[in-house]
Design the sequence.
């Protein structure tokens, strides 16, 4: 049976404001599944042209698939969001690249014609599900020295990356982190980020209020909690390096422990046009790559090389990058490799995870919503990349094309 | 001034209501989406989960007042542009704490709490910024009312219950409900909520009806109810949403609504309970309280407070609270029931008989126990008819959307019929509903004993025969128990569980466990003639019939009990029960207690003539054919004399039943009369009424309940 590969497009993406994990965090008493459910509902409200019964699948990623992130969260979230019972769903996991993988997997389904439209997203409530909850690593990892013990601790892998590339100093990392905060603050001032945020009702019980000193009752989360406007280099320099004495990685030059969820709608381009849905980005190619788990932060480099090689594009063809800022050093390893300057305004122009936070499996779609906003603002850019490093030594890259591209070079 | 109110509430709360579960008024400020500004959100939360709903006692009101004072200051300072009120998960608020009402001893206390509610809630309507109530979950009484002081309301489509239950209990909605609700949704709809639903055994509104009646301005889905309520509020503030309110007819339309309320109240309580009439007076006057007319509104509030104080200091309300407590609490923990762990599992049920009662039982067992049910009878035609009835009932449930088609098929597959009783060989519970005659029933049980497993409970639905006698000749009389339902089985909640002389605890525990699964209110009764409800009703009807036999006109005798507000008149009740059954039960009781019970010759003549009632169908006109049958004396009593005699007889009988130990306490008699005969809350069943009217002391020598239990404490 002959068939043609279809173009998969990014129709729309939204996310919750990201919160800080822990008892004082805004989502301390909010369920993880509720976060992703509210994203799905917002997508349906924003895209009335999308008939809910035409959604072919719901792929939701979570790293720790336990409790309110378990029970095949894509299916349960679909039911709880009020999608018709005929719409299936599943759970997906590639740690930090969970939502990104939900997107690429769904998009592949679109490309072969198995899907017309899908919901893909991710959630991670690191307050309710701390990293490493209930993990049971095979003892062979240690006995056979398959990986260094540091591979399990992301902060240590980032320190390892500094070791591998001595030119990537703590000072450069801190400067990068400061810029991330400044760019994020500006993006908020310009109203770019808020467009894709779903306000979330948050509750603090009297008990939790007494324990934290925060006010009790219902509130509404409308902005990212982790942001630190007013960050200074001096302040950053003074922070502790928890992973190593006199190390380089601090709470300031890395993303924190966060709670949040994202969701997106992908569709075949034909379906999107037929239903009057926006086409914000066109998926060109994607690639995943493995690296030594001890330096997982290097993952985006081979993943991006691989994706570029498949398309015949070069790094010079890419006008916008959304690199997940798990650690500043990992972004710098990427930019250094591709000959980009530390402050290149093609990279994370609206700030990144250092400012907004990084609720592991949800972050991939945040990169996409920000890249889509960049595309909208910059019709002179034709191609963009979303890329991220992944635990246990992986990188993930998606190349996107800007449908608004007008062929003119910006003056 | 306000400081004084808050301090007063705290002080009086501590003094008079130390057990109050205190609700907090939690306030957080938030940014509304779309740049609509900052909103102060007040969450009403008592610190427990939804199993302990949020209530408003004195200290709770003080907390809400304090929260609203803070909000008023923030609004005045320009810190917020709007205010909203919502509840903890699943619960908005369920109003005044009934314990506080029950413990009130002085009129002044009630006036204070009535005025305090108005004053505290008015802090919302006095704000100069738009106010919203987000009805996220159950909202009753004062919970509904606090939202009426807001400018706008949203409601969750999953809201399970909203009501103003005050008239059901014997109160009026006294924190603004009578005055504000008709002015918001119109008098017609207000009468539906305040009178009709309340008097319809406290019928609840669900979210969509709350919207449809106009109590809420918008219906929102539960998944993101609070977020969308806030988004909606933001759009209202920005003028992107406009809210339409109905034009209210303050003339003839208002009159008609109040008149409809009166006719509902007359039909339900016949003037015997003051609460709905007081509520209607206030609703009537509330037509003057046009939004914006503060003086008229205050006049309405004052009338509410006065009515509340009168009612709380009246015995009808105390009896209502007592009755409510019986059906809410005592019904769930039957007095004298054995340890529930002794109960044996019931995985299959047998029913002997396939008549109407047996078919109703089959339906109930299938629906609630969801286990196989086998019907047996003497001929196939009757069995087919019984199964046909069950299938038709299942189809009705399916048609109403109460069950889906898979469940309907499952239920239908559960019921089978058989001419012989071999289908009972693996039954755990067999109930007989055959002809009401000792010999027949004994034969049935004897036959069953040879078939059913040793652990099987044998239950009888007899209404008047001795369960002990029925079991006497069995090898295992200890597994026989009385299981007496009331007709119609699906509607009357009562199940009298009869412990015969040799019934063992495991059998009794199994009976109670089955009853609980059937969602019945069970009361443990001794194996005494006609148990509780039929004995009381028969004694009572016997006095009415005696008056007729002696020469009092049927309609005079029948009207005698009207001032009690019973659900139906004695002669109507006789028609419902059927003269034959009534005559039979009277015969049984006359045999047991010839000094107090007798059969009525006139009733006997009706039965013989095959008449089903005294009256022509749907009238209170004596059927001329019946009139021709009656042979009466020449002693004509007044209504009052008949009433006095009937009530004295009832009091005497109940005293004797308590002395005989038929039930554990007078409370059980009342619970039986409420749930088995539909006797009203304002009588407290019956013993509170007999106490307060003095009949108990006159006819039975002493009260049934201590003063204060179901009457105003002295």
Sequence:
């Amino acid at each position: 049976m002959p068939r043609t590969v279809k173009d998969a497009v990014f129709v729309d993406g939204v996310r919750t404001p990201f919160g800080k994990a822990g008892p004082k965090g805004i989502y301390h008493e909010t369920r993880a599944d509720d976060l992703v459910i509210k994203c799905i509902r917002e997508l349906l409200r924003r895209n009335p042209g999308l008939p809910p019964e035409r959604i072919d699948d719901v792929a939701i990623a979570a790293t720790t698939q336990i409790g309110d992130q378990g029970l095949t969260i894509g299916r349960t979230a679909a039911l709880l969001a009020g999608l018709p019972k005929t719409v299936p769903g599943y759970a997906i996991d590639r740690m930090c690249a969970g939502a990104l993988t939900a997107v690429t997997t769904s998009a592949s389904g679109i490309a072969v014609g198995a899907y017309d439209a899908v919901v893909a997203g991710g959630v991670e409530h690191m307050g309710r599900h701390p990293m490493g909850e209930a993990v049971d690593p095979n003892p062979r990892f240690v006995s056979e020295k398959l990986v260094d013990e540091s591979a399990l601790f992301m902060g240590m892998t980032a320190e390892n990356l500094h070791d591998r590339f001595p030119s990537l100093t703590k000072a450069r990392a801190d400067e990068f982190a400061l810029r991330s905060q400044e760019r994020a603050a500006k993006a908020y001032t310009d109203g770019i980020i808020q467009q894709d945020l779903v306000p979330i009702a948050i509750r603090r019980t009297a008990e939790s209020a007494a324990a934290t000193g925060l006010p009790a009752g219902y509130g509404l989360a409308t902005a990212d909690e982790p942001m630190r406007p007013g960050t200074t280099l001096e302040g950053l320099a003074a922070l502790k390096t928890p992973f190593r004495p006199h190390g380089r990685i601090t709470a300031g030059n890395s993303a924190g422990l966060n709670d949040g969820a994202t969701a997106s709608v992908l569709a075949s381009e034909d379906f999107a046009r037929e239903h009057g849905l926006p086409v914000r980005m066109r998926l060109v190619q994607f690639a995943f790559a493995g690296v030594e788990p001890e330096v997982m932060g290097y993952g985006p480099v081979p993943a991006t090389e691989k994706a570029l090689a498949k398309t015949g594009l070069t790094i010079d063809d890419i006008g916008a990058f959304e690199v997940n800022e798990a650690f500043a050093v990992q972004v710098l390893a990427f930019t250094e490799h591709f000959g980009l300057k530390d402050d290149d305004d093609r990279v994370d122009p609206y700030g990144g995870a250092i400012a907004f936070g990084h609720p592991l499996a949800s972050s991939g779609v945040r990169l996409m919503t920000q890249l889509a906003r960049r595309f909208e603002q910059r019709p002179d850019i034709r191609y963009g990349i979303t890329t991220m490093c992944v635990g246990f030594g992986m990188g993930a890259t998606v190349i996107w094309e800007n449908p608004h591209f007008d062929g003119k070079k910006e003056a | 001034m306000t400081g004084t109110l808050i301090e007063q509430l705290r002080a009086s709360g501590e003094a008079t209501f130390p057990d109050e579960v205190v609700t907090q008024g939690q306030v957080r400020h938030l940014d509304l989406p779309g740049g609509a500004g900052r909103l102060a959100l007040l969450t009403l939360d008592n610190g427990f989960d939804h199993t302990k709903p949020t209530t408003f006692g004195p200290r709770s009101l003080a907390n809400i007042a304090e929260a609203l004072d803070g909000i008023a200051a923030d609004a005045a300072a320009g810190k917020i542009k709007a205010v909203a009120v919502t509840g903890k998960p699943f619960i908005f608020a369920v109003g005044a704490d009934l314990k506080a009402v029950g413990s009130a001893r002085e009129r002044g206390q009630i006036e204070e709490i009535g005025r305090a509610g108005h004053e505290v809630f008015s802090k919302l309507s006095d704000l100069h910024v738009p106010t919203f109530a987000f009805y996220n979950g159950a909202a009753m009484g004062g919970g509904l009312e606090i939202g009426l002081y807001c400018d706008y309301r949203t409601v969750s489509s999953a809201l399970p219950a909203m009501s103003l239950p005050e008239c059901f209990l014997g109160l009026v909605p006294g924190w603004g409900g009578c005055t504000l609700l008709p002015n918001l949704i119109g008098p017609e709809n207000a009468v539906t909520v305040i009178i009709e639903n309340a008097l319809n055994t406290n019928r609840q509104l669900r979210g969509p009806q709350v919207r449809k009646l106009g109590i809420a301005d918008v219906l929102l889905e539960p998944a993101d109810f609070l977020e969308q309520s806030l988004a909606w509020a933001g759009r209202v503030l920005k003028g992107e949403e406009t809210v339409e309110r109905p034009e209210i007819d303050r003339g003839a339309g208002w009159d008609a609504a109040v008149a409809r309320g009166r006719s509902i109240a007359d039909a339900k309580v016949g003037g015997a309970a003051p609460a709905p009439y007081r509520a209607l007076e206030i609703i009537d006057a509330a037509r003057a309280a046009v939004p914006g007319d503060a003086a008229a509104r205050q006049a309405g509030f004052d009338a509410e407070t006065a009515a509340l104080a009168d009612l709380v200091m009246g015995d009808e309300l105390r009896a209502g609270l007592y009755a409510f407590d019986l059906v809410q609490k005592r019904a769930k923990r039957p007095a004298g029931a054995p340890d529930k762990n002794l109960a044996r599992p019931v995985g299959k049920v047998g029913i002997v008989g396939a008549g109407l009662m047996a078919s109703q039982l089959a339906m109930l067992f299938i629906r609630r126990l969801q286990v196989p049910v086998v019907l047996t009878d003497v001929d196939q035609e009757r069995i087919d008819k019984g199964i046909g009835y069950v299938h038709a009932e299942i189809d009705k449930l399916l048609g109403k959307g109460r069950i889906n088609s898979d469940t309907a098929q499952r239920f239908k597959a559960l019921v089978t019929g058989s001419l012989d009783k071999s289908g009972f060989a693996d039954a755990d519970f067999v109930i007989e509903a055959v002809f009401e005659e000792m010999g027949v029933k004994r034969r049935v049980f004897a036959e069953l004993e040879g078939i059913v497993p040793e652990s099987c409970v044998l239950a009888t639905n007899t209404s008047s025969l001795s369960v002990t006698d029925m079991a006497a000749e069995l090898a295992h009389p200890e597994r026989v128990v009385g299981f007496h339902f009331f007709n119609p089985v699906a509607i009357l909640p009562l199940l009298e569980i009869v412990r015969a002389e040799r019934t063992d605890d495991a059998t009794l525990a199994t009976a109670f466990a089955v009853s609980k699964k059937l969602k019945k209110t069970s009361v443990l009764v001794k194996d005494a003639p006609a148990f509780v409800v039929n004995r009381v009703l028969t004694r009572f009807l016997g006095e009415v019939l005696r008056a007729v036999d002696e020469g009092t006109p049927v309609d005079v005798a029948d009207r005698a009990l009207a001032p009690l507000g019973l659900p139906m008149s004695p002669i109507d009740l006789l028609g419902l029960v059927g003269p034959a059954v009534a005559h039979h039960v009277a015969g049984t009781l006359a045999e047991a207690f010839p000094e107090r019970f007798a059969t009525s010759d006139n009733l006997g003549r009706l039965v013989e003539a095959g008449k089903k009632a005294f009256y022509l169908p749907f009238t209170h006109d004596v059927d001329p054919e019946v009139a021709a049958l009656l042979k009466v004396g020449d002693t004509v009593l007044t209504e009052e004399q008949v009433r006095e005699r009937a009530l004295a007889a009832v009091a005497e009988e109940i005293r004797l039943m308590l002395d005989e130990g038929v039930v554990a306490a007078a409370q059980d008699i009342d619970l039986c009369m409420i749930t088995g005969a539909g006797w009203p809350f304002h009588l407290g069943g019956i013993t509170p009424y007999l106490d307060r009217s003095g009949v108990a002391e006159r006819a039975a020598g002493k009260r049934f309940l201590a003063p204060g239990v179901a009457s105003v404490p002295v």
Observations:
- Residues 639-660 of chain B form the longest helix (22 residues).
- The domain at 533-661 of chain B is CATH 1.10.1040.50 (N-(1-d-carboxylethyl)-l-norvaline Dehydrogenase; domain 2).
- The CA atoms of residues 115 and 302 of chain B lie 8 Å apart.
